[in-house]
Amino acid sequence: MPDPASRPQNPASERYSVTLVPPAVQAVAELTESTGLSKADVINRAVQIYAFLEAQTRDGADLLLRGPDGTPERLHIV
To answer: Residue 73 pairs with which residues in a beta bridge?
Structure first.
């Protein structure tokens, strides 16, 4: 894991070129359609959410999703 001290404190915008696997392409398409957000906004939000969830689990938190019937289900991100 990179040393946090080596990361910029206020990083500027940065352009990336990535190849998404078909399920990710489908997810981005569905999210842009359902939210009205751009592909860039969807991907930016996804990365920020993943970073938040990873930090929470690294610090010992459990991720739970409560179903419509109220039953909690533990989430595992692999």
So the answer is: 65
